[in-house]
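User:
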Amino acid sequence: MHPAKLWIPRKDNAVQCRLCSHFCRIEDKEYGLCGVRVNEAGELYTLVYDHVAAANVDPIEKKPLFHFLPGSWSFSIGTMGCNLACTFCQNDSLSQGPKKTHRISGQHITPDQIVQSAIKHGCQSISYTYSEPTIFFELMYETSVLARSSGLKNVLVSNGFMSKDCIMELSPYADAINVDLKAFTDEFYSTYCHARLRPVLRNLKTILEQGWWLEVTTLIIPGLNDSRSELQELVSFLVTELGINVPWHISRFHPAYLMQDRGPTPVSTLEMAYDLGKQAGLKHVYLGNVPGHDSETTKCPSCGQPVIKRRAFTLGPSSMQGSKCAHCGAEIAGVFS
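Assistant: Predicted structure:
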C-alpha cells in the first residue's frame, strides 16, 4: 500500500476521497467504489501505486489523439481498477476485477523507470490509459512531474469523471487528454456506467479552460445512445461549450463484457452522427473502428484538402507546414511540434 492523495478525514476513522466525482465516504477497513483505495485506521491508501498492469509503446493515434504530435510514439501505462462500472467495458479484466476481489496484479515499476523506458523507446509522451488514470493518480502524478522535467509530454485517456481537485493538481503537468463522453443522458450514465453525466460535462469545460489539448470520443451503441435527437444535443454541447476546434471521435461499438445482446454499430449510424457534427460546425470529426473510412483523414477545414492521411493508426503522407495547411496556409488546430 502507498499513502493516497486528495482525501479528508471524517469522524470515527472514516475518510472522504476527493479524487473523483463519486466523493466516496469510506469507513475503516472498507474500499472506495474503484476497488483500489482502502481506509486503514483513518488513513487512505492506494493499492496500485506500484503495480503497473499494462505497459506498451503505442502510436499516439491509438489514444485516439489525431491533433497532438501526430505520428509520434507514446509510452502507455495502466493499472487495475476503474471508478466507473460500464457494462460494455472493453478492458473489463483490467478495470473491474479489483471491485470483486480487491486483488491487485501488476509489475513493480517506479515513476523514474517509466520515464526512462519512454526515453529508451523514442517516445515523445507518456500516456496514462488502458483502465482509468484517475484511480492511479499518485503514480500518474509523480511520473508526470519527472516526465515534464525530462522533456516528455503527459497524456490522459479518461472517462472524465475525476474531481476538479484532481484536474487542478495535474494541470501544471498535463498536456493532452481524450475524454470518453459516453452519452448525453443521465439515465445512460446511471444505468450502464454507475455514474452521472453532469460532472463529465463540467470537467470537459474545466480541462479546456486549463489549456490541455482536448479531444472527445463517443462510443455509439445501437439502441442506447444512437438516436438522432440525443446526438444533436451532444453535438450542440461540443460546439457551444467546447468549441468547433475540438476533434470528435465517433467510435463503433462491438459486443463486450456484459453487453452481448446487440451487434456492432451500423456504419450508417456512425455516418449520421458524423454528418450532424459537421453540419453543426465541428471542424474535425472522425469515425473509429472503421478501418479505411475516408473520415480517418484530417482535412483542412478551409480548402478541404487532405493534410494528414490515415488508415487506422498508420499515417500516410502529410501536407502540413508546421501547423498550417500546405495547400492554402490555413491554421489547423492542434499541437504539432
